[in-house]
Amino acid sequence: MTDAASAGVAWSIQLAVGAPAGGDVGLGAGTALVLVAVFATVGSVAAQDGYRSWLQVGGPESLARALRATAFAVVAVLLAADLIGVDVSVTRAVVGGCWALLAVGSGRWVLSVWITRRRRRGELVDRSLLVGSGDAAYRFWRHVASRPDAGRVIVGYVGASREGPTNWALPHCGTVADASAVATALGLDGIVIAPDTVAADDLAEVIRRAHASDLDVELVGGPALVHPRRMSVTEVAHHPLLFIEPRRVGHLREGAKRGFDLVVGGVLLLVVSPLMVVTAIATLLDDGRPVFYRQRRVGKDRRTFRLWKFRTMQRGADRHEHQLRHRNERGHGPLFKIADDPRTTRVGRVLRATSIDELPQLFNVLGGSMSLVGPRPALVAQEADFDTELQGRSRVKPGITGLWQIEARDNPDFHAYRHLDLFYCENWSFALDIAILAWTLPGLIRHGLMVRRERSAPRLRTVVDDTEAHADASDCGPGDDDGVGPPMLPVDQTSFAGLGPR
């Protein structure tokens, strides 16, 4: 309904007001074209499975669906106009599509803020039972528990009882044969099956019983870091197989990314240069020199470079870091972060909350050590503590903004940071970069609203930082967490109490 209303308003204004002199399409024809655009937009998103309740409403994937849908609507409007004999130019239709994309994207942003807030309170979520107790089951539960904003809650598991890792904090609810009965008794939405611990002979019976009980059935399958668009179902003599397309990164695509960084980065630098001058003056008046903070970071192919940002902490803050180590809010993992760092200056708090402190990194982008989009560059000492898989982040250039920064910036779980950075590296594309950039500004606005609300309420949790471990290393931008986000605790799944129907 949000997509339909947004697209309808945008196309109505464009067709009614955006016409040149003598170009009025008429009320009847205009109404017909608006309806065509609305149905084309909504139908395209639906065809991309964009209305499944467990998918995120916001984020780059959501925006990418909206982009494809509005492009399809432009073509549909042109074809419909030609069919009914109305003169609608290509330029007019494209402009209408741009307005529609802006309207649909804005509507989804507002909706995502509302839905995310509700999901953090345990509302608007799908509640499922996990069938299986092996490694695949654990990894899936661990991933879901790290992303409460995704709208999925695993309330327990059935299968062989196991102790597992120390943080396998999930209630054991019975055997595999009990799956449908347990899920029905608890009033759950469905079951998720991890086939690695379910016998092949039992699998078909579990699925049949679940469907007979009107439960959704899903299988945990495919590599966790492969984008779903690269996977398709095929078969050999009626036996299903999962086909995975190879990752394609050639010199042409890398050249296009570099050219995009130079053009867009240069334009952005010109636009924000007055703001940077004001920021430099404010920093100088507030706490004197130096205005900038420089730090060695790890870039592509593990080569180090010097990262620039505005200074937001008191001079000599490095010497006091050891006194704050006991306040590290990163529960596990090699990263370090504390909220409300006492070393932060008055101007620094504003710069970090608005991410203005990251603007000097546009010089890093133009110089080639960074990209506009990519994983945040790690500190040298922290990168040395990453395991071999996570060190694979260095396959691409680090960025000012990235997938983790706009999807899980306020998430305290290191797993979310790890998964999204590696997912980006494995599935990088030019279209994904554009979608991430387009969602960065709405993400910053949403984060600013959350920061303001959090400052007026008691702190309920700590937050995750991407790479900051020293002095100004905790400064934040589109690619960093500033340590003052909203409540984002993983859903409590350690107790079986209160999991019944509601």
Q: What's the end-to-end separation, in Å?
A: 26 Å
Uncertain regions spanning at least 5 consecutive residues: 458-502
E-strand count = 11
Mean pLDDT, to the nearest integer, reads 80
Number of helices: 14
Give a concise summary.
This protein has 502 residues and is of the alpha/beta class.
Architecture overview:
The structure is a single chain. This protein has 502 residues and is an alpha/beta fold. Helix content is 46%, strand content 11%. It has helices at 2-17, 27-47, 60-84, 90-120, 135-146, 179-185, 200-212, 251-287, 346-354, 361-367, 380-385, 403-407, 414-427, 430-455; strands spanning 126-131, 152-158, 190-193, 216-219, 231-236, 239-244, 292-298, 304-310, 371-373, 378-379, 399-401. The chain has a 4-stranded parallel β-sheet, with helices on both faces. The longest helix has 37 residues, at 251-287. It is globular, with a radius of gyration of 25 Å. 42% of the residues are buried. Mean pLDDT is 80; it is low at 458-502.
Write the layout of secondary structure elements.
Layout (H helix, E strand, L loop, with lengths): L1 H16 L9 H21 L12 H25 L5 H31 L5 E6 L3 H12 L5 E7 L20 H7 L4 E4 L6 H13 L3 E4 L11 E6 L2 E6 L6 H37 L4 E7 L5 E7 L35 H9 L6 H7 L3 E3 L4 E2 H6 L13 E3 L1 H5 L6 H14 L2 H26 L47
Parallel strand pairs: 1-2, 1-3, 3-4, 9-11
Antiparallel strand pairs: 5-6, 7-8, 7-10
Helix pairs in contact: 1-2, 1-4, 2-3, 3-4, 3-14, 8-9, 8-10
